[in-house]
Design goal:
The structure holds 2 protein chains of 2 kinds. Chain A is mainly alpha-helical. Chain A contains 12 helices and no strands. Chain A has one domain: Ferritin. The longest helix of chain A is centred in the first third of the chain and has 29 residues, at 45-73. Chain B is of the alpha+beta class. Chain B has one domain (6-84): Phenylacetic acid degradation B (Ubiquitin-like (UB roll), Roll). In chain B, strand 1 and strand 2 form a beta hairpin. Chain B starts with 5 loop residues before the first strand and ends in a 23-residue tail after the last helix. Classes of the chains: A mainly alpha, B alpha+beta.
């Protein structure tokens, strides 16, 4: 029976698969770069290490996914070529990932919203029809489970903390919530990938994301904002200005010294 | 360092079947954070499969002033070491 379904299932083109893989890859890469900005600036040595560890997990995910996207594309671009030699408009990360760190609470809120999405997405992708993607997702899901544990723990600590910490994370939730619609609302490519059995059905990810985030906000004594339809299109290459600045830092060394190794 | 954060001692079990060993200490605001910090600080290179954290203030330590009374008396009791005893030739399996 599953054979029959598989036979009837539409097949995604290489271009579509590459594009979809880049959305995941770039989201991990950009989020990892953002967290790496905290190195040496964390509120405590232990937090420096924690944020650095999470950044390295994310960059590790990005390497595997970019290499996969390069293989699917078949034009000889490897992970470095894709990370360092594309410009902002060619990046496919969700807009939330590129938002600046702000204060520690702001970073924690961004990570919470993103971690919950990555966790649910990767957990579902473990059953993807693209077996290479499924293997990467299985590893990434374990990492993201810890990332969520870390960020949700801090969300509660700050939300249910002092008056000032509550105010700061509360403002961050209000500020960043508008970027969550892009995570949860499928566009044509997401829908097509789900049809082909590669991506999870968006409705399932949305439901689990909403439950997870709502529970954390409740525990943190933060109100759950109302849903906002906001037209962010990071995953289609239309980014906020923050990405250009991030890429300047990420890319300047290999661009200034092409082929350099360090 | 936030003054609300307290010191925790960290113990790691390196493999199943082995005991937890003290590896160091760190600061954290609560037990959950202490486990996370211990994970991030002490198990980044696959050092362990299980963690314990204990508030340092919960540890009862012996008083260095009493070291003589506590530990000196054991010094001349060499017969408490198995190596003190000669093994008779007749004993084949020990």
């Amino acid at each position: 029976m599953s054979m029959a379904i598989a036979a009837e299932r539409p097949q995604a083109t290489a271009e579509e698969r590459c594009e979809y893989t880049l959305r995941l890859a770039d989201t991990s890469l950009v989020a990892g770069q953002r967290l790496a900005e905290w190195l040496g600036h964390g509120p405590a040595l232990e937090e420096d290490l924690a944020l650095g560890n999470i950044a390295l997990d994310l960059i590790g995910q990005a390497r595997l996914l970019l290499a996969l996207a390069g293989r699917i594309e078949g034009r000889g671009r490897d992970e470095d070529a894709l990370a360092f030699w594309r410009d902002a408009a060619q990046f496919r990360n969700v807009s939330l990932a590129e938002q600046p760190n702000g204060d520690f609470g702001h970073t924690i809120v961004r990570q919470c919203l993103l971690d919950a999405w990555q966790l649910e997405t990767y957990a579902s992708l473990a059953g993807s029809a693209d077996t290479e993607l499924a293997d990467i997702a299985k590893k990434a899901a374990k990492e993201c489970r810890y990332h969520w544990r870390y960020s949700a723990g801090w969300l509660v600590r700050l939300g249910d903390g002092t008056e000032e910490s509550h105010r700061r994370v509360s403002e961050a939730v209000q500020d960043l919530w508008r970027f969550t619609d892009e995570l949860l609302t499928p566009d044509a490519l997401d829908a097509r990938m789900a049809e082909c059995g590669i991506a999870p059905p968006a409705a399932a990810v949305r439901e689990r994301w909403e439950q997870r985030v709502a529970a954390a906000l409740r525990e943190a004594k933060l109100p759950c904002p109302v849903h906002q339809h906001y037209p962010w299109h990071g995953k289609r290459g239309v980014h906020t200005e923050a990405l250009g600045h991030l890429l300047a830092t990420l890319q300047h060394l290999p661009r200034a010294h092409p082929g350099v190794s360090w | 360092m936030n003054e609300d954060w307290v010191l925790y001692e960290v113990f790691i079990r390196s493999r199943s079947g082995l005991e937890h060993k003290h590896v160091g200490s760190l600061h954290a605001a609560d037990a959950r954070m202490a486990i996370e910090h211990a994970r991030d600080t002490y198990t980044r290179r696959q050092e362990g499969v299980s963690l314990w954290v204990v508030r340092s203030s919960e540890i009862v330590a012996s008083d260095p002033e009493e070291a003589d009374a506590l530990f000196e008396p054991a010094r001349d009791k060499v017969y408490r070491h198995p190596t003190f005893y000669a093994i008779p030739d007749e004993v084949k399996n020990l």
